[in-house]
Amino acid sequence: MEKTVANVALFAALIAVLGIVPNITLGFGVPITAQSLGIMLCGTILGARRGAMAVLVFLLLVALGLPLLSGGRGGLGVFVGPTSGFLFGWVAAAFVTGLIVQKWRQAPLTLVASVASIIGGIGVLYAFGIVGMSVVLGKSLSEATLLVVAFIPGDIAKAIIAGLLTASLARARPASLLSRQGV
């Protein structure tokens, strides 16, 4: 129990730290951030349940007003802005990413974690984010999709980095990879 609480808190802090660099917000309100890498790592390292819990803790801190999002944003207002779909999608993204890593054990971990990050950390996340942008900005789903297409190459790079970091951690400290412990 204590180890779970510590890991969830550690990864919530990791998501916060990854929001610091870079600090670039595009004209339509969507920031370029490394926080999605943190979401991917929550799933690949902690697994589905713990990864989603870490994201929920982070979002709770944001809702309480802590300026933990890119650009120093926080508070309840961010949950109704253009990026609100992405924020809600983070929980599902971490869960799906972790579930894939937990269940798919036949392939090398780098490949599994990278593919899981692409499916959960990009596919699932974009589904939530695009719908959220469509609703908040009053655009069609295709128009909202066009707004996020430019982020895909960077997010694929983050997914590959998540796969490499997860595999490196598994080699260096196998007991730290909770997504593969089946607990």
UniProtKB/TrEMBL annotation:
Major place of residence: membrane
Gene Ontology CC annotations of this record: plasma membrane
Record membrane topology: Multi-pass membrane protein
Localisation per UniProt entry: Cell membrane
Ranges that cross the membrane: 6-30, 51-70, 76-101, 113-138, 144-170
GO terms for MF: biotin transmembrane transporter activity
UniProtKB keywords: Cell membrane, Membrane, Transmembrane, Transmembrane helix, Transport
Domain of life: Bacteria
Protein family per UniProt: Belongs to the BioY family.
PANTHER family linked: BIOTIN TRANSPORTER BIOY, BIOTIN TRANSPORTER BIOY-RELATED
Identification of the protein by name: Biotin transporter
